[in-house]
Design goal:
- The complex is a heterodimer of chains A (about 160) and B (about 280).
- Chain A is built from 8 helices and no strands.
- Chain A is mainly α.
- In chain A, α5 crosses α8.
- Chain A is globular and about 55 Å long.
- Chain A starts with a helix and ends with a helix.
- In chain B, a hairpin with a 5-residue loop joins β3 and β4.
- In chain B, the strands form 2 sheets. A 3-stranded antiparallel beta sheet of chain B has the order 3-4-5, with no helix packed on it. A two-stranded antiparallel sheet of chain B has the order 1-2.
- Chain B contains 8 helices and 5 strands; from the N terminus they run αααααββαααβββ.
- About 10% of the residues of chain B have low confidence.
- In chain B, about 35% of the residues lie in helices and about 10% in strands.
- Chain B is mainly α and about 280 residues long.
- The chains are: A mainly alpha (about 160), B mainly alpha (about 280).
- At the A-B interface, α1, α2, α5, α6 and α8 of A face α1, α3 and α4 of B.
Chain lengths: ~160, ~280
């Protein structure tokens, strides 16, 4: 990959990688640091990584750095704990986007990751498996459980309102 | 043909949402969903689980990540190893200098004078500086006050500006370093202050000298210049004594013998003269 192609990768994927990490960590500064670290790693391996695989390489590296960071900071939000909290929203009709974000934030980290890779980045099961180290069946199961949880959360919220 | 029921509708709706069901099964499943209110509400909720595109989040540091184009990528992966090696070598050198820095090297003279073949090198004491002289003086004075019971209080801080050594108090004679060689010209006043018996030999007699002193060894070579037949020429007399001393070192025999005061005398002797140096 040339310097020009590397810069094209920066333009094309830095926002997506930043969004992916930020939605998982919910810490803007840490997300910026991890994106920088990921692109620094890409630059160090710029001769080994092909241009058409740079997106997958970036998300794999970013995901691993994010997992390392989560394990260090022990910021994993357990699903059981989140669902013990009562669902309290504002009296007015909540924005669907916010509801979905809240539902997404309550998912376990691996389910949130695979759903975001699926919906935001459009990866198929095999590519998601390559990034997260899972096989296709596991990816499909995690996505199913994530959507089922989100659907139940949205349904309960609508029932309350 | 898929048939929706309460046990499998979630898996079928998930596959439908994920695009895993192709036509014509897709149309058939959608028709079954629309035919039942419960399935319709469930399907609407399933469709809401798809994350909407979120383009609000923009990474603010694009320029930081970009690299200048047009140049050639030159990678030196070995640089990190070279840098690590330099750091280790520098640390080792610093440790070596630190551990060996306390030893003061004593300069050794290769030869004393002239042709040094066959001569052993002579160790020279380090040159005296104002600091070393001052330290030596303080140590001696402290030792002296300890023996007398009045310990001199050492100043906590050195004065800001030291005066030259010549302006300090005169150094006691006992603290003066031993002077091994004194030029002949400087011996005259000392001789006058401490008159010694004239032991210089008469003509054709051995040169017997000797001045035993614990601090300074002086060979007495001066005497009162006598009146002679050459018209009282002092240079001629000095020249004569010089010849005597010069001839003393022709084929000399050097020996060591005990003196009367339990010391030792160095005896330099040849056929004509004999010189005894006591210490």
């Amino acid at each position: 990959m040339t310097t020009r192609e590397y810069n094209q990768c920066v333009d094309a994927y830095s926002d997506a990688l930043f969004r992916f990490i930020l939605k998982n960590l919910r810490d803007r500064d840490e997300a910026q640091n991890l994106v920088q670290d990921s692109f620094e790693s890409l630059w160090l391996n710029v001769e080994k990584v092909e241009y058409d695989k740079c997106k997958s390489w970036l998300f794999t590296t970013g995901y691993r750095k994010m997992i390392d960071h989560i394990r260090k900071q022990q910021k994993v939000v357990m699903m059981d704990e989140t669902f013990r909290e009562p669902v309290k929203e504002a009296n007015h009709q909540p924005d669907l986007k916010k509801v979905i974000e809240n539902a997404l934030a309550r998912l376990p980290e691996i389910q949130r990751t695979v759903v975001m890779l699926r919906d935001y980045e459009g990866y198929d099961y095999r590519e998601i498996g390559n990034i997260t180290g899972l096989n296709e069946a596991q990816v499909k199961v995690y996505i199913f459980r994530a959507r089922q949880t989100m659907k139940d959360y949205i349904g309960k919220l609508e029932a309350v309102l | 043909m898929m048939k929706l029921d309460r046990n499998n509708y979630e898996m079928i709706m998930f596959d439908l949402l994920e695009g895993n069901i192709k036509e014509p099964e897709r149309s058939d499943v959608i028709r079954q969903i629309e035919a039942d209110t419960f399935y319709t509400i469930e399907w609407e909720n399933w469709q809401k689980t798809i994350l909407p595109p979120d383009n609000d989040m923009v990474f603010p540091m694009h320029k930081v990540l970009k690299k200048p184009e047009g140049g050639m990528i030159v990678k030196f992966p070995f640089l990190r190893y070279a840098a690590a090696a330099c750091i280790i070598m520098g640390a080792a050198f610093a440790v070596y200098r630190f551990t060996t820095g306390n030893h003061q090297e004593i300069p050794v003279a290769a030869e004393v004078s002239g042709n040094g073949k066959g001569k052993k090198p002579v160790k020279q004491t380090p040159a005296l500086t104002a600091d070393t002289t001052r330290n030596l003086r303080n140590e001696v004075s402290n030792m002296a006050s300890e023996t007398t019971g009045t310990r001199e209080k050492t100043p906590a801080k050195a004065p800001e500006k030291r005066k030259p050594l010549q302006e300090d108090r005169p150094m006691p004679e006992s603290e003066l370093p031993v002077v091994h060689n004194i030029p002949e010209a400087e011996q005259t006043p000392m001789q006058e202050m401490n008159p010694k018996p004239n032991l210089l030999p008469e003509k054709n007699e051995p040169v017997v000298n000797a001045l035993a002193n614990n601090d300074v060894k002086v060979i007495v070579t001066q005497e009162t210049i006598p009146q002679n037949e050459q018209g009282n020429d002092p240079l001629a007399v000095i020249s004569e004594k010089g010849k005597q001393l010069k001839s003393l070192f022709k084929k000399p025999k050097v020996s060591l013998e005990k003196s009367e005061n339990k010391g030792y005398n160095v005896v330099i002797q040849n056929e004509d003269y004999k010189l005894i140096a006591g210490f």
